Known about the structure:
This protein is of the alpha+beta class. Helix content is about 25%, strand content about 30%. It has a six-stranded mixed β-sheet with strand order 5-4-3-2-1-17.
Amino acid sequence: MKRATVRVGLTQFAMSGNTAENLETGIAATRAAAKEGAQIVCLPELFRSPYFCQVEDPEYFELAEAANGESTTALGKIAKELGIVVVAPIFERRAAGVYHNSAVVLDADGSAAVHYRKMHIPDDPQYYEKFYFTPGDLGFKAAKTKFATIGILICWDQWFPEGARLTALRGAEILFYPTAIGWLPVDKPVYGDDQHSAWETVQRGHAIANGVFLVAVNRVGTEGDPKTGIEFWGRSFVADPQGVVLARAGETPQNLVVPCDLGRIEEVRRLWPFLRDRRIDAYSDITSRYLD
């Protein structure tokens, strides 16, 4: 069996209120990960700013940029210079009044390999994303890059097995989830451990069910009002096709560089042939909202 090992880089850091500074932090973290041997580097969701979706304020639309704007241009140059692939999350301005929570995969030559728009948009306390983001309309995608075929989903997408499945069915070997998730102060003492455990467990389940690697990249730090804001829990991690956590970050800024042996995908799928045994003739009801 032909084997290939790909080293993925997870850049976990805190965001300041200065967008230029955050871009430089992201570039520095990307360079550091590449220096440690990373071939594919992923930044956190909406890394150019603090997580502004804690409030509904039209002023924050000023943070948006084009899909081929400042962030992807700068990171595309870094990707080409270092010969790596970069997953670049952005707040995308598509047109007047139409905005997306997006990510662009920049291949090792600096070109855009795929453009993904977040499909599932939450509307929860301190996560008022429906005010800002139009649901994605590009579908679930996989990009064949220099080092691996990768799929991109974003944060709230993590809770939906359909997105992981459809991306894997398009050939993704590694699922990347740029993320901004944390605890509310009122919830942490009672539900904190359970919330984190559920978040990690459901994603490990995606890795298992689809026989792929999974990479979740979160931010850290407390943002907003100390009494009502969000404490982003970090804990970025990589899981293999059996759901084994290969590496997990703590709750402070750090990079992880993790080797992923792509040969494990074939090995695991031979033992657990879930894709072979799917009853595609029996799943038509999945397109219903609910079966009354």
